[in-house]
Amino acid sequence: MAREARNARLRQQLGQLLGLAGANPRSWILGVVIGSIALALLDTLGVAAMAPLMQLITTGSADSGILADISTLLGTSSPQALIPIVAGIVAGLFILKSVLALLFRWWILGRTTRISALASSQLMRMYILAPYADHRSRRTSEIYRSVSDSTAQSTSVLLAVTALFTDSLVLIALAVVIAVVSPSVMLVTAVIFGVLVFGVQRMLRNRQSRIGEEVSASALQSWQYLLPALDGFREARLTSSANAFADGYQKAKLRTAHAGRQLAIISDAPRYLLEIGFVLAIIGISAVLTATTSPAETLTILAVFGAASVRALPTMNRVAASLATIRTGQVGLDIVTNTADELRRGGMHDETPRPDSRYAGDITLHEVEFRYPDADRPVLGGISLDIAENRTTAFVGSSGAGKSTLLDLVLGLLEPTSGSIECGGRSVHDDLPSWFANLGVVPQDVFLLNDTLAANIAFGVPEADIDLARVAEVITTAQLDGVVADLPQGLRTEVGERGVRLSGGQRQRIGLARALYRQPRILVLDEATSALDNATEHEIATTLRSLQGSMTILIVAHRLSTVRNADTLVYLKDGRIEETGTFEHVRATSPDFARLVQLGELN
Ligand SMILES: Nc1ncnc2c1ncn2[C@@H]1O[C@H](COP(=O)(O)OP(=O)(O)OP(=O)(O)O)[C@@H](O)[C@H]1O
After folding, report:
1. Annotated domain spans of the chain
2. Is the CB of residue 540 less than 8 Å from the CB of residue 529?
3. The two domains 3-346 and 444-519 share their CATH topology (first three levels equal)
4. What is the pLDDT of residues 573-593, one digit of tens each?
5. Which residues line ligand 1 (CB under 6 A)?
6. Which CATH number fits domain 444-519: 1.10.40.30, 3.30.70.20, 3.40.50.2000, 3.40.50.300?
7. Is the alpha carbon torsion for 134, 135, 139, 143 positive or negative?
8. Rounded-to-integer distance, Cα 521 and Cα 524, Å
9. 575 C-alpha to center of ligand 1: Å?
10. Given 5, 238, 271, 274, which residue has the most CB atoms within 10 angstroms?
């Protein structure tokens, strides 16, 4: 890509990064420009002040230029009196510049680290507010890489671009000072450093970009071993594949280490070349000056050149390092901006319900068809159904018939490819947050927070706002009283990853209590009684019967006892409704369903 296009893209992407963090690019640019100009000016003054000081030291005369003004102001032209004063001014300028440089760096670091944190958080927010179907098609390892590694890479580019701008201004200012003091010295310096800096950077550019890609690819690879190894700990242990995961992780980390080493050496190499350039410049300049000027003037010019070099060499090193960071970090910036664009295009869920918006009445599905984005044919088709309010409807069917998909559609998590799903005559997608407010959902696998049992039941409600009376009530309804009584700290017991381990059945009952805590109008159970033993399942079935009539209950279940008492049974086969009606009606009219019951698959 041509340099202009590359720079334009970089500018645009950095603008996007700042936008993602909610920062105002204008105030950012203004701050950087003002700070950089102030620093460059002070640098120039400090270095330029070396000329009169050296002139004073070498010639002892203060009768021209700024020295004449100082000597008039102080009323003395004695070098013994003037030298400490001029030296003091030079030192003061350097000290002031250093303090300002430190303050400027503090400001920049504050802004940049904040932008890194905000961009990463915003990306995380966009991921978790993305449409459900999009989320299901994403790879977790890529999410981890975007919100951590790639955001960090992008912010390092932002910091490097700022440093590059500031350092370039300083270098230009120093070049101006040298050019004013001696144009021929500037010419020699420009030729030597120009050849070195541009030549080296040309050679390194592609290599640095490749290293950036390697860093990013190996970061993804390491997440791809770490995450499944933790999520699939049991499977890894039982299949003796834990070491294979650890080996894969190690390989990825070594790739990162190798790339890091290459990057460090490539960023460092220009420094040594610049030092060689400095020595060459001193020799070249001394040769030119000795041939053209007096020894006193040679000394003055060399002193200015030395002071400029003291400042310029580390600055040039930083320029080389900044260029390396920009090129290697470009991959991260690409990932962050492309991901943010893609997430934005997908749309973000708004969790705030519209005021005065509420759903009530029967749920009706009209000619619903659904196809997963990456599938070539629909998994559900021609689904028309009336789910009566305050009645219990059970969905049954063989594995893969489409029960969970249908439930996700009714929940509003998935949107029909065609057809409509309405409650009380209004599409559930019209105001999803308000629709969700009606629902209490018990999933197959209940997710536990690392928190107290009470917090797990009230899920998402801040500790201080938890209604303990309601928690106690739903604990009784979900048959959890015995479990709570056995816990060391009752409701305050920590559960989840690092807390008390709970059985599958206990987790499912917590799931039921959690769903009921929300006082739902619609209770949805997705295979929610699968992990319960017969006795508990019987008790839960009794609970559900007691709730029957007071709320709409939707159940996907394999157990005969759970679905037998449903008011309506919907039998699904190959993505279509085969039969609906009471349990006995469906058994009598659908030979397939009758066979399932007979074979004990619904048992
Ligand atoms: N994300 C997806 N992309 C493509 N196809 C999918 C996706 N999720 C599920 N399917 C397919 O959709 C069909 C219905 O799946 P679904 O999970 O709804 O069935 P189910 O009746 O709930 O099955 P089970 O009782 O085994 O849980 C299956 O053929 C499944 O392979």
Report:
1. 3-346, 361-438+521-531+551-603, 444-519
2. yes
3. no
4. 999 999 999 999 999 999 988
5. 136, 372, 374-375, 379, 397, 399-405
6. 3.40.50.300
7. positive
8. 10
9. 9
10. 274
